[in-house]
Design goal:
17% of the residues lie in helices and 25% in strands. By secondary structure, the chain is α+β, with helices and mostly antiparallel strands. It folds into three domains: 3-211, no CATH class; 217-255, no CATH class; 358-427, no CATH class. The strands form six sheets. The chain has a five-stranded antiparallel sheet. A five-stranded mixed sheet has the order 14-15-16-17-21, with no helix packed on it. A hairpin with a 3-residue loop joins strand 19 (391-393) and strand 20 (397-400). Helix 2 (61-73) packs across helix 4 (112-120).
């Protein structure tokens, strides 16, 4: 066994602020500026003599491994003693490694000590042939395995859709830069630095950085751009199309027929009073594009007008919380109880619509209870008056209405006539 001294770096104290990158190809507004600045400040990366960083140049497997090892040696989330024990670089003691740990090593290349030390610690493995291919470009799948293997000690079995699936899924939300579009994509210096920075150095508060996620989709494991959630439905973008899944990301998606250029979420928040008289906050999202309002399961609501959608009215409780929205042509009710649902009020007229008490509403020609239309054939609209929860009257009779036996897909509800007004008043 040949002794090789590993003077990889001198450990730094965690800085309170990072030094500016000062590379000609990484200006202040560059998407990798923070990452390059931090890793440069720790002495993990450096630029070229011409003043550039080479942000768009491809990174080799050996270069990426070295970057991860040096980053972990300066991991601010570990104590210095723990870091020294796990990644003992930069000390004065010699570290013994086998320079021929991979069949394509010959003890003459700069990357061999790094790779051999990591292999002896069971942090990496090479190809089944025994090679490491240190000079080959590293793709995203390989980088995820190296990063999770070194940083977290993970060693996963091949996934159902791709061998790297478990490694990629164990990268936290926000850690995969948006410029990474596939598992086989070879990484640039900028992307590599960004990936290492986000996994090891980035604070949770910085997770709003532009990112993608990888999920099983149509029998593949591909990059998707999470757009947000609305009405128990998660929306993603992939390949320029918008897709929706029921509530959480699942294997099976349905095309939501959304126009990506105009797709957006309308958001409303407020308070309601619960049955104990306490104020509770509530918020809702509704997904729209210029043509549609999207309902449950990401399906466009038939007849909706989309882009002009807006919320109106407050939030009403106490058990089931509701609010309302409208576009140019229709009124919608949003009902929230362990998740929210949206439904268009049948034949509603935007211009004459008004909210009443106890989840009743009306326009010039229709009465509504929650999102069902009341069968008003026997009701005098002019003298209609809400009395309480599920009860109302006109000049002739008293009525009650219950939603217990109705389903979301029902359109109309027939009220129960209780008493004639004249008979009731004579009791």
């Amino acid at each position: 066994m040949k002794k090789i001294y590993l003077p990889l770096l001198i450990l730094f104290l965690v800085p309170t602020a990072f030094v500016q990158a000062n590379f000609t190809d990484v200006p202040l507004e560059h998407e990798n500026y923070d990452a390059v600045s931090v890793l440069k400040d720790y002495g993990i990366v450096q630029g070229y003599e011409n003043g550039s960083f080479g942000v768009d140049e491809l990174v080799s497997r050996g270069e990426f491994l070295k970057m991860v090892l040096l980053a972990e040696a300066n991991n601010p989330n570990r104590t210095e003693s723990a870091t020294s024990a796990l990644f003992p670089f930069g000390g004065e003691d010699e570290i013994v490694v086998d320079p021929f740990c991979f069949t394509d090593f010959d003890s003459t290349q700069w990357f061999e000590p790094y790779a051999c030390w990591a292999k002896e610690q069971n942090l990496i493995e090479g190809y089944p042939t025994g090679d490491f291919m240190a000079l080959d470009s590293v793709n995203f799948a390989e980088a995820a395995k190296i990063l999770l293997g070194v940083s977290n000690g993970y060693d996963f079995e091949p996934g159902e859709y791709h061998w790297s699936e478990s490694y990629v899924l164990n990268l936290s939300d926000g850690e995969i830069p948006a410029s990474i579009k596939s598992l086989s994509q070879n990484l640039t210096r900028g992307q590599s630095v960004e990936l290492v920075f986000r996994h090891i150095f980035m604070n949770e508060d910085d997770s709003s950085k532009s990112h993608v996620q990888f999920y099983p989709f149509n029998g593949q494991f591909i990059a998707v751009n999470p757009l947000g959630e609305a009405m128990r439905t998660s929306y993603i973008e992939s390949g320029g199309n918008v897709y929706a899944s029921d509530y959480y990301f699942l294997d099976d998606y349905e095309l939501s027929e959304a126009d990506l250029k105009t797709f957006e979420f309308h958001y409303a928040s407020g308070y309601f009073e619960d049955h104990e008289g306490s104020q509770k906050d509530v918020s809702v999202n509704v997904a729209v594009d210029q043509f549609n309002v999207f309902g449950n399961y990401g399906l466009p609501i038939e007849g909706s007008a989309g882009g002009s959608f807006e919320f109106f009215g407050g939030f009403e409780g106490p058990y089931i919380v509701s609010t309302y929205g409208r576009d140019d042509e229709h009124v919608y009710m949003i009902e929230c109880y362990e998740g929210c649902s949206i439904k268009m009020l049948p034949d509603s007229d935007v211009d004459t619509f008004e909210l009443l008490d106890h989840h009743f509403s009306r326009d010039a020609d229709h009465l509504y209870y929650y999102y069902w239309e009341l069968d008003s054939a026997q009701i005098d609209l002019e003298s209609f008056e809400v009395l309480g929860v599920g009860t109302f009257r006109d000049e002739n009779s008293y009525y009650s209405v219950s939603k217990d036996e109705l389903s979301f897909n029902d359109e109309k509800i027939t009220p129960l006539k209780l008493e004639e007004v004249a008979e009731f008043e004579n009791i």
